[in-house]
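Hi L., both proteins are below.
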Amino acid sequence: MSTTTQTAPVLHSEAMPVEQSQLRLIVRRFARHRLAVVCSALLVSIFLLAGAVRALVPFDATEIEVGNSFAAPFSVSLKDGRTHYLGTDHLGRDYWSRILYAARISLTVAVVSVIGSTAVGAVVGALSGYYGGVLDDILMRFVEFLLTIPTLPILLILSSILLQSPKAVPVPDFIINGLSGFMYISALEARQVVMIMLVLMSLGWLGIARLTRGVVLSLKTMNFVEAARAAGVSNTRIILRHMIPNAFAPLVVSASLGLADYVISEAALSFLGFGIQDPTPTWGNMLSFTESYMFEHPWLPLIPGLPIFICALAFNYVGDGLRDALDPRLQL
């Protein structure tokens, strides 16, 4: 009597469905947003230019060339033949050099301000949503009160006060020295930059707090939070290790969209004379100085105006792309 042995068919690994990682799904979703990808590349290029400013500029940001005011783009220096790629301003300072130094300062102000605002808003919102009760009422009523006040007048008042007495707010020397070296400015100018960051952060955390509170309210009744409480995990640890990390996706989207607002706000303060002051170059104060000469030299406002417009638009498109990529309801 003979027996026949049947072997089960072997499934090749190539035919098995491979589960994609969450990061890969996010990247693929983001890549489908073509404008967001293009704007990301554009922003990376701008940040690289700002980072390598010392290697790319032919002049110092404050170097004045007497007798060569309002030189046209690609004109030659009267002193040593170096090229003014974007011309010169009313004092004979090279525009290409100043626009890159200004990018380093303006973008640093925006990035640091958005990080600080997000951190403060996330903590306040998490505390309010997690504990609820009287603490929630006090914090949210305070936030709602501040949101009813027009933003620009408050920023102008705070900026005027802090810039007139920049040492009124104690700032550690290592922060001042670090910013001074990073942005190639003096310690006094670095202190003014810190004051503008504080002004922008003073109201920037309000929307973040409300956003985080909403996320925490939906999370605190979930099973993993109840399990953490049952295991004896402290409330502080639950907030820092479970609540805020689970709010990471909406916080990232809000921060990326907020960068556009901070770029515009810093430029607006400097344009109105309540921001970082000349000779420290920022896109806002450079735009302000072109106002008196724009009819005789119409290209001048375009030089600082275009970077503001491009960065604000690019940050918005990147934020839209991140919002779509991080939305779990969207299917690839």
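That was the first. Here is the second:
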Amino acid sequence: MNELKKSIHDNANGLDYTLVNDHYLPNLTAAAPAEHPTGRWGRLHKTYLKEQHPIRYNQLLLSGELSGYLAKLDKQAEEQLALTVQQMQEAEGVTEALKAADQLEWVCRMNSICNRAEEIIKTELIFV
């Protein structure tokens, strides 16, 4: 009987193949995905994608784009949060003067502003 070669190269597609149980399988390696730091907003969106949009999640994961996508979204959410908090502070008159005059009132108002701003971020960027 004719012996099969242990490995072959296909010039048509440039791939190498290895013999495994009478079948030639391509020698494929996945590129190591670039790791990007993911913060709070990226983790929230990742969970949302897993639970509500598993197909989109798997597409991003298998293409190696998930980490970069989540890092970009996280950065965008942080910037939007800072801008929203600043705008709400100005609109509601929460200033350093109020902080110096009545710290407890300032803390109450800032907590309210931060909570509302976070809800806006969740609604507009994270859970969409």
